[in-house]
Design goal:
Length: 479
């Protein structure tokens, strides 16, 4: 079934890479009817566009509390997934599996936690240049109060040179493609639409559970009929679940750690060793070149390469890219049981993928984004990090699975005491003080220990990104 691109919000299928300036507004709904009137005035960008033709755009998503404020009945909200309804900070169990403990625990968050005003709406604004975004932002902000909305948080973003994140590594190289939409991604990275867009067959060939309503609940027939249920209308169709985590990065501690662990016998710094260790932790060199392609040094020929496998590229044992590296954990490609190195292994991996749509925030410690300058800059004041946004249709089987079973799992793929060296929680929930990272080598592997937590959570929430017809339905509910 072809995707109904005109009914899907643009951010789900494309990252708006050409719209470098973005801002996220978290809003509270004070007056549901006024908020519905406001929704009716918004010009929400769908996914049917040519990148050169748009200069600014708006997309929107809601928390479960937000859907209730719009007047969705308990019966309808119950149709949404448990993870979404409970929320990211909803249960202690979820906090533990996500690693949201210690300094990252929800009661310390700036937004989305139990001590913060509850966000109901996420408004995503994008502009081609700063001036365009700033006009869009002030237009939106000016209207909020008169439509019964309260601004809870304005989350600004940045764009760093060479598409890097704050530690100094190129990000966004590996993109997950959707079957029938993205034709340039490799076979292993091209996933059935239903993994990201509700209402289409997923990696099991089935329809992921999603909100359906009875015909009576949709008297205006605004929603399409559910393809797998003749009696019900599809509120989920062409929508998705959006995971939003504000992740702050401690750049100085990250590079100090890599520096200390690679000093020469006489105590002198070892700049190449430092970059090498950090690259082993990521799985790519700062330029983006994957370690499986060039394990010994950065090679500018492969900076955008995403066609590699692990077993299939001669790295079954992690001698090129360590087993525990960030990219190998978050997308093990052909390393998964039951039959690593096979097509079946890749197919299993397709059940646990996400589409990343995040943006960096905060000023860089060095504008050049070169590692030497980042290290030389040292501890620069100010907060910086990643507004991590990703899409999936089954939060438990996709985002939460990655976070629990791969990122924070000390026993990942035969390891026994390592978590993700870049973003792992260091077992902080169990009173452990530092992480371990193993670098497989022949004849003897090396291990670095006492690794602090480099990334902390400052705010987070699960949202539902509706299709455009579903949005019209939300505007009409109870009216
Ligand atoms: C501040 C936090 C983070 C930083 C600095 C970071 C950094 C990076 C970098 C440098 C890459 C390599 C570039 C690329 O392949 O596109 C990458 C890839 C990736 N990251 Fe992260 N990341 C962060 C958080 C996360 C989180 C929370 C998740 C999911 C739970 C995640 C999932 C992924 C995935 C799926 C890939 C692509 C792997 C592949 O397909 O090979 N990242 N990240």
């Amino acid at each position: 079934m072809p995707l109904q691109v005109e009914d899907i919000q643009g951010i789900l299928l494309y990252g708006y890479g050409q719209l470098r300036h973005a801002c996220f507004l978290l809003l509270g709904i004070i007056d549901g009817d006024a908020a519905k009137a406001w929704l009716g005035t918004l010009d929400i960008r769908n996914a049917d566009f040519k990148p050169d033709e748009i200069h600014r755009c708006v997309n929107i998503a809601f928390t479960s509390a937000g859907l209730r404020r719009l007047g969705l009945s308990d019966e309808m909200v119950d149709e949404f997934s448990t993870e979404f309804r409970e929320g990211m900070a909803g249960t202690e169990h979820r906090q533990r599996i996500l690693g949201d403990t210690g300094e990252s625990s929800p009661d310390k968050w700036r937004w989305g936690g139990p001590r913060n005003a509850e966000p109901h709406v996420l408004l995503m604004l994008y502009g081609r240049d700063e001036a365009t975004l700033s006009v869009l932002l002030s237009e939106q902000r000016l209207r909020l109060a008169s439509f019964g909305l309260q601004l809870i948080e304005q989350l600004d973003t940045s764009w760093l040179l060479h598409d890097k994140e704050h530690f100094g590594f190129r990000d966004g190289v590996s993109q997950t493609g959707i079957e029938g939409v993205h034709t340039r991604t490799s076979r292993g990275n091209t996933i059935p639409a239903g993994e990201f867009v509700l209402g289409y067959p997923n990696a099991y060939g089935q329809y992921t559970q999603r909100p359906l309503v009875s015909r009576d609940q949709d008297p205006g027939e605004l929603l399409p009929q559910a393809p797998d249920d003749q009696r019900r209308h599809d509120l989920g169709m062409n929508g998705s679940y959006l995971v939003f985590r504000q992740l702050s990065q401690d750049v100085a501690t990250f590079w100090q750690y890599c520096d200390e662990k690679t000093r020469r016998r006489d105590g002198a710094p070892n700049p190449e060793g430092r970059v090498r260790l950090a690259s082993k932790m990521v799985g790519r060199w700062p330029s983006g070149t994957p370690l499986v392609r060039s394990p010994e040094k950065d090679d500018p020929a492969f900076t955008s390469d995403n066609e590699f496998l692990y077993y299939g590229s001669g790295d079954a044992h992690g001698l090129k890219c360590p087993i525990g590296a960030h990219i190998r954990r978050t997308n093990p490609r052909d390393s998964l049981e039951p039959d690593p190195g096979s097509d079946r292994s890749i197919e299993v991996g397709k059940r646990h993928r996400i589409i990343r749509r995040g943006r960096v925030y905060g000023t860089p410690v060095a504008n050049s984004m070169e590692v030497t300058d980042i290290v030389a800059a040292g501890d620069v004041a100010g907060e910086r990090g990643l507004h991590f946004l990703c899409f999936n249709t089954h939060i438990g089987r996709q985002f939460e699975f990655i976070q629990r079973t791969w990122v924070n799992n000390p026993g990942f793929d035969g390891l026994y005491d390592d978590d993700d060296p870049l973003i792992g929680d260091r077992g902080s929930g169990h009173g452990k003080t530092g992480g371990t990272f193993t670098i497989q080598a022949d004849p003897i592997r090396t291990r670095v220990t006492g690794m602090p937590r480099f990334v902390q959570v400052r705010g987070a929430a699960y949202f539902f990104l509706p299709g455009l017809r579903a949005l019209r339905f939300l505007v009409s509910v109870g009216r």
